[in-house]
Write a structure and sequence with these properties.
Helix content is 74%, strand content 0%. With 493 residues, it is mostly helical.
């Protein structure tokens, strides 16, 4: 076999599976095991052309955006669904909550599956099921069928919140991963903002069922692009397929890949994936607090899908179509935040050079410090511009720093968790996803009652106050994170 190529550590692999198994292959081959299949330059996903890798990143990101857009797109179908199924508005809000619950629980299963069967097969099967199970949502005969399949479609689409980050890190070395990872990271958060914008136009002019029919067409297009243009990038599975080809072409059954002799069963991997994230939440205070901060911010974002119609329809007299457009402010904030990524890349490059190529994970929290300030500032600004006598453009402008803060908070926390808890990176992300999804599912359910009781100013200011309480976390952990990691049984030292 020719020269070996080392693969960088994957974004979502517990125990750094890709790296360790490839290194094992290298050491055994160096000892003369001629039947052990190793990674060669032509097999390395990082050696694909830049164009092909970026096309794959953009397709994976757009598929992720489509899934999260499907979560919030239900917000503007609630009135129509309530009339069709003869239920209260509060019951139809479960369409969002159950979908998000599916998004939060799915990664516990699909993560281990991707490490045995590869990323591509997980993408294709999950998206095919996402497409198939959306049909019962479109043609639901009653509210029970509608809600059950909203939960199932959320579960099926969840692969793009857990596995997709690994695909991005598979294709790019650490030196150039920041920009493609930023594109992927923002896509799940642009999706919920795009949902009301799309649904507002559809529901203003057509029946509410058309919202899901349009979504069904979008899912089908994404599925075709995943099948046609996204290659397999998970190195252990690439080697496994190569070993199978060699066995077939040479007739020699002795060729094998490290994954062929992997210890442990799929069931044990799924069990590990299920209980380790909750161990992290129960026994690691830093992970619990950062995950709670993320969960609060995402909960507030999903609460906005109930709050903005109250603010702009009830207070300013907007119709459904123009209310959907009010979410543009949050989207502009996110896009403006991602445009600063080159500045953060230069900052991280300087920090890396200062620490001789091994910077502490805490440097990733600098971005979170900016986000921690922008989120409450945007929410307080929004709260005190919801009076009827204040022009409607003011709260939309106020939502721009809130949107920018969301991007900074999540990008900072995601990269910190993966680097600080690298031995169990997948579990660290799964614990974050589970808690985020729990808050995002719960917050819309009490939004209406809270805004009716406290008013638009009081309710939004309460959310801003909660965000303010959590804002010091990135500053605190930037200073003491290294000490906390030394005392943690989960974190990298």
């Amino acid at each position: 076999m020719s020269t070996l190529t080392k693969i960088p550590e994957s974004f979502d692999q517990p125990h750094d599976a890709a790296t360790s198994e490839t290194d094992i292959a290298a050491s055994k081959n160096a000892e003369g095991d001629t039947h052990l299949v190793v990674l060669e330059p032509e097999d390395n996903p990082q050696n694909l052309s830049s164009l092909r890798r970026w096309i794959a990143v953009l397709i994976i990101s757009s598929a992720s955006l489509c899934v999260t857009c499907a979560s919030s797109i239900a917000a503007f179908t609630e009135q129509g669904a309530a009339l069709t199924f003869h239920v209260s508005h509060e019951v139809t809000i479960l369409g969002i909550s159950l979908f998000v619950t599916g998004l939060g629980t799915g990664p516990l299963l699909v993560g281990p599956l991707s490490e045995v069967y590869g990323r591509n097969i997980v993408y294709q099967i999950s998206y095919a099921l996402f497409f198939i199970f959306t049909f019962p949502v479109v043609f639901a005969p009653n509210i029970a069928v509608f809600l059950v399949f909203r939960l199932i479609t959320g579960f099926c689409g969840s692969a793009f919140l857990s596995v997709a980050g690994g695909s991005v890190s598979d294709m790019f070395p650490n030196s150039s991963i920041a920009s493609p990872m930023a594109v992927y990271t923002i896509s799940p958060f642009i999706g919920p903002v795009a949902g009301p914008l799309i649904a507002g136009f559809i529901n203003q002019n057509l029946y509410w069922e058309w919202t899901y029919r349009v979504q069904l067409c979008w899912i089908f297009v994404e599925f075709l692009m995943l099948v046609l243009f996204v290659p397999e990038t998970y190195v252990p599975v690439i080697l496994k397929k190569k070993a199978r080809r060699l066995r077939e072409s040479t007739g020699d059954p002795k060729f094998y890949a490290p994954l062929d002799r992997r210890e442990g069963s799929l069931v044990s991997a799924i069990l590990f994936s299920c209980y380790t994230p909750f161990q992290l939440l129960f026994f690691d205070r830093m992970a619990l607090l950062l995950d709670s901060w993320n969960a609060l911010v995402l909960g507030i974002l999903y609460l906005a899908f109930q709050a903005f119609p109250i603010i702009f329809e009830d207070v300013h007299g907007f119709n459904m179509q123009t209310t959907g457009l009010t979410f543009i402010g949050i989207g502009l904030g996110m896009l403006s935040a991602i445009s600063t990524q080159p500045l953060w890349n230069r900052l991280y490059a300087r920090e890396t050079e200062k620490h001789n190529g091994n910077p502490p994970p805490e440097m990733r929290l600098i971005m979170g410090q900016v986000g921690g300030i922008l989120v409450p500032v945007g929410l307080f600004w929004l709260a005190f511009t919801t009076y009827p006598q204040v022009h409607w453009i003011a709260p939309i402008i106020a939502s721009v720093p809130f949107g920018a803060g969301i991007y900074f908070v999540f990008t900072s926390t995601f990269t910190y968790l993966v680097t600080a808890y690298r031995p169990i990176a997948a579990s660290a992300m799964a614990s974050n996803s589970a808690l985020r999804s729990a808050f995002a599912a719960a917050f819309p359910l009490f939004a209406g009652a809270m805004y009716n009781k406290l008013g638009t100013v009081g309710a939004t200011a309460l959310l801003a106050g909660l965000a303010t309480i959590m804002a010091p976390l990135p500053f605190i952990f930037y200073r003491i994170g290294a000490r906390l990691r030394k005392n943690s049984r989960f974190a990298a030292q």
